[in-house]
Amino acid sequence: MPSLDHAPSEPSVPRRTRRGMRTRDALVAAARRIFERDGYLDARIVDIAAEAGVATGSFYTHFASKDEVFAAVLAELQDEMLHAGVSGGSRRELRRGVEDANRAYLESYRRNAALMAAMEQAAAVDRRFLQLRLQRSQAFIDRSAAAITRLQEAGLADPALDPAVTARALSAMVSRMAYVTFAADQPVPFEALVETLTRLWINALRMPQE
């Protein structure tokens, strides 16, 4: 996976006072609310500063640009939104692992749908955010590919499938359905969504029926 060599990053600040840290935290929290309300493209630094209750100049003490504060917002979301990954060495274990991973991801996406929609906007206009988005999904893809390989070796999955490509395709299916359902407002009953995506995942591997 390519590294994010030119990723948006926070400015290096050698020393922060407690007051400065509080201001920074207030700006990140305010930025999240503005990005969720207005989207990435229409969010303005002046609105973020006003939402945080600070002067616009105070924003630039902590962040050089809108993309830097957006990167800080996404960093706080990272642990929650990372896929749990799929594991298991048998059909039963894999199905349970797929269902659990899909459910956790979809629940998190539903909670953060407005921010994820803003990330879609950012990724469409700034390749750095596209690369960040791809990096965030790579750990899940790698674990899924390893599980698929083990199933193929056990004779429980289609041996003709490329594990890495298959894992990437299935991950894309789940993440795109999450976007369409929760961010693009095309609702599907939650349990039906989990069940359908899990069944499609399992069927795609052509696993034998029990």
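the 2nd protein, sequnce then structure:
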Amino acid sequence: MKIDSDFNDIDALGDDHIGSSIDTPMRSDAFKLSNNEKIDIIKDDVRHILETLGLDLNDDSLKGTPKRVAKMFVNEVFGGLDPDKKPKASTFNNKYKYGEMLVEKNITVYSTCEHHLLPIVGRAHVAYISNGTVVGLSKMNRIVDYYAKRPQVQERLTIQIVKELQSVLNTEDVACIIDAKHLCVNSRGIRDIESSTVTSEFGGKFKEKEIRRELLDYIQLDTQF
């Protein structure tokens, strides 16, 4: 039966963590509703899920959960879906003529796997070589955080970070490496708590073997304070 076949295909795709596109899949009417309207709808949906599981939402500990979850989804965990929250990355002229790569390493990544809606937790390492323009260091962290705060696959997240910084800095010479644990692997399914996933995207000069090697050496530096 075709419906059964479709569900089997969806299950297989979810376990294999196959992505669909570089851009986050969004409907054309994604921003028709206000955030408050979305919270009200999601609150009812969460309540229905919990009640279906058999939980008593009259209990003092649970009765506020539907709204808490709805607010968390809209304002925090999936806040990166809101274009109004996109960080404004101001750039500056590279007046000090720094010509080597700049590496911001160990940027904390908190994201959500779009196949099972379970956390992705790890570190991102982002680098660029200026062609005359530099960006504030904190903006690199904010760009990572913005694209992480949406349902994601790690491959797409890595590419989106690079493409955004390439656009901001007007250069192809941008790279990103992410090393992260996926709780859909660590806490369910195979339940392998030791494994992590590493993805990378190298643009421009970072495709050159020597430049890429230099970046990897920087990342491995033991930074302690």
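Helices lie at 2-16, 35-52, 65-77, 137-148, 154-169, 183-186, 209-219. Strands lie at 91-93, 101-113, 119-129, 133-135, 151-152, 174-182, 197-202.
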